[in-house]
Amino acid sequence: MTNPVLVEVLRGEHVESFHRGAWAVVDAAGAVVASGGDIERPIFPRSAVKVLQALPLVACGAADHFGLDDAALALACASHGGEPEHVAVAAQVLAQLGLDERALECGAHWPGFEPAKLALARTGEEPHPLHNNCSGKHAGFACLGCWLAKGQGQEFRGFLSGYVQPDHPVMQTVSQALEAATGFALRDAPMGIDGCSIPTFGIPLRHLALGFARVASGVGLSADHARAAQRLRQAVARQPFMVAGTGRFDTRVMQHFGERVFCKVGAEGVYCAAFPEPGLGVALKMDDGNNARAAEVAMAALIARWVQRDDDDADVLAPLLNPVLSNWRGLRVGALAPYAHFLASASSSK
Q1: Is residue 315 part of a domain?
Q2: Residues paired with 249 in a beta bridge
Q3: Strand residues in the chain grouped as ranges (E)
Q4: What is the pLDDT of residues 54-108, one digit of tens each?
Q5: Is residue 215 part of a domain?
C-alpha cells in the first residue's frame, strides 16, 4: 500500500515536495473513527509512548512513595531540550531516591535546545545523562526500580543495574503496561533498541491510537492504570514546559489546550495524542521520518479536526498548521500545509 500525501512543502505558491504517511483516529472500544494509509503495519513508536511507559510508575504507588510532583511526572513523559529546568527536575528525582546521574543508563548527549547547548559548552563541561532528552523517563524508571527493589528487600543501586535490558523487572513491568494499553501482543512484535537503550517494539498505528484513546478516557485500562493515566495527563497539563521545552510544539499546544490535548512526538516522524473530551486516541507516522516539519503539521490538522475549539484555539493552531519557511535573510520563501485530501479524509467518519 502506498500511503497518502499528508503534508505539502510550498516554494512560493508552488508545491516543491511532499510527505506521505499513515494515521489513525480510534475510540476506546477499538473502533477506527477515521484513518488513512496502512495502519496495520508495525512501526516503532519510540518516544511517542512515554506516557504509556510511565503508567506503572504511578499505578504501583512508587511516584507517591518517593514524592514525585507534577513537574517530575511531566518529565517522565518528556523528550525535553536539556534546559536547566529539565536537568534540575531529573536531578531532584534521583536525589529523592538517594541516587545521582550515574544511575541512569540512557547515555549522554548535548542539550537539544541550542541556547542550553551553547551555555553548557561555554562552561567547558561535557554533557552528562541528565542532559539526555530521555532523562526524565529514565529517572522515572529508576523510581519504579527502587520501588520494586524495596518490595524485594534489595539495595537500590544494585537492583537497578541493567534496568534497560528487556528481561529486567523494570522493563518487564513497563512492557506489560505498554501491551495492556495498546492491546498488541509484544511477543509478536518486532523489537529494536531505542536511542536511550531501552527496548522499542513495532506496534501498528491502530493499536497505538487505541492505547491513547484509553489514556484519554480510562476505558479499557485497569483501575490503577486509568487513575495513573489521568494523573499523568493532569501533570503534563500543569507543567507543559517539562514535556518538551521552549518553543516546542508539544509544550506550545498543551500550554494552551491544557487537559483537552495530550500530544507527544516520537523519533522518525511518529506522533501520538489523546483527546479526552471526545475520548479519542490518535497515532501517525510520516514515511520519511520527518519530525520537525511534516509530523507537526499533520498533528496540528488532527487536533484542529477532532478537538472542539474556539477562536483563541484557532489562533494558536494557525501557525502550527501553516508554518512559514524563511531563508537566511528572513525572507518568506514558502510554507508547509496539510494536503487538501488529508484534511478531507480527517473530517470524514469511517
Answers
A1: no
A2: none
A3: 5-11, 14-27, 32-36, 42-43, 191-193, 199-201, 203-204, 262-266, 270-275, 280-286, 324-326, 332-338
A4: 999 999 999 999 999 999 999 999 999 999 999 999 999 999 999 999 999 999 9
A5: yes
